Known about the structure:
The chain is an alpha/beta fold. The protein has helices at about 50-55, 95-110, 130-140, 145-150, 165-190, 200-210, 225-230, 230-240, 295-310, 355-370, 390-395, 405-410, 415-420; strands at about 1-5, 15-20, 30-35, 65-70, 75-80, 115-120, 160-165, 215-220, 250-255, 265-275, 315-325, 340, 345-350, 380-385. The strands form 3 sheets. It has a 7-stranded mixed β-sheet. α3 (about 130-140) packs across α5 (about 165-190) and α5 packs antiparallel against α9.
Amino acid sequence: MDSDIGPAGRRLPCPIVATTDLHSPEWDGLILVTDSTDNLTGPLEFLKAPLEQAKQFDDYVGKDVTLIGLTGLASRRLIYSPTGPVNRDYDDVRRYRDAADKGIKRALKAGCSTPLLVTPSGYPFKQAWLVSLLGAMQALYTPLEIREDVPERAQKLDRLGVWSEKEEPGIKGAQLSAGLESGRFVARDIGGSDPERMAAPRVADYVVHNFAHTVVQMKVYSDQAVLHRCYPLLSAVNRCSAGIDRHAARVLELEYVGEGPTDLTLFLVGKGVTYDTGGADIKAGGVMAGMHRDKCGAAAVAGFFQVLSVLRPKGMKAVGYMSMVRNSVGTDCYVSDEIITSRAGVRVRVGNTDAEGRMAMADVLCHAKERALKEPNQTHLLTIATLTGHAIRAMGPAYSIILDNGPASKQNTAKKLQEG
């Protein structure tokens, strides 16, 4: 039985269909993601023999993604995308994401428009099925500029099937992944789009449109006098851009309240530097390219609220702030050695204008703290920012990091998030 996931208005790269039917003629390719053919048991047993036979003629089978013709399938296409080893000290569940990514791209090259993703359960990662599906949907994402400028290229597949041996877990898993992916979709739109398409005012327009008629409530602070009074540190970064309407700063406030008694309240503040030139301490030597992604902290906040708007968890409240500002350079830019009094009354001496993220977030975080102190239940404050250089130096590429302050450390907040 099939279940279509992805009604109109949900941010997904294509409709997702949960199914228990491997042999339906609606699928024009089967993408198999697994670490071992030993996982092919029960209804997947029929795939083992042709794969073993293919290995006799092609040593590449099982080492990287391979397309095999298969008479036992209605689709006649088997795209085998092995994860490789998953039992070494440094292996993690992202191997399934990477394999699904490769499998989807190979299916597209083969001309598939309705492939079926199959990820057998296996040791040691309980979330392999979910991560594989998220990896597939990530590969299907089309950037916002392409969707807007070349609409015929907006969607890469007609639909994506995802197989589960049992119907109910498959439907629930697909619904969860669709909710998560819709948030990632929004975050990619904001974080990845160029500095003009996602300048602060246009980020505000996008977010307001996205959350219209949803359970997420919004406020946009755009008056420059209000920003100067309420967020003086952010306003200093904004000073060079404030006179250019299309670049002027915005602070976005989002709020979600789930059904039932509230047991937990989250406050999130995201760094939304739409372009970081470094300011007067300018980024030199060719390192400025890519700085449109310095807004990914704020993009993650918007994505999180998109997930909340779809999944609607009960018993929690969330308040998010997106500090959207451009760190421009010019005659009116802020400079090192300026002393600016923050919202909290602290006098801040600017040491380097390329440390604009803390300037953009500090007053907004103070605002969040003021509200958090009035909350009657367990409350957490989190900042989200693209401090990627520090993260890479500490952990290597492709990892996110989380750091506790004193109170958070006592509650093991970072460890709890890491363990999921």
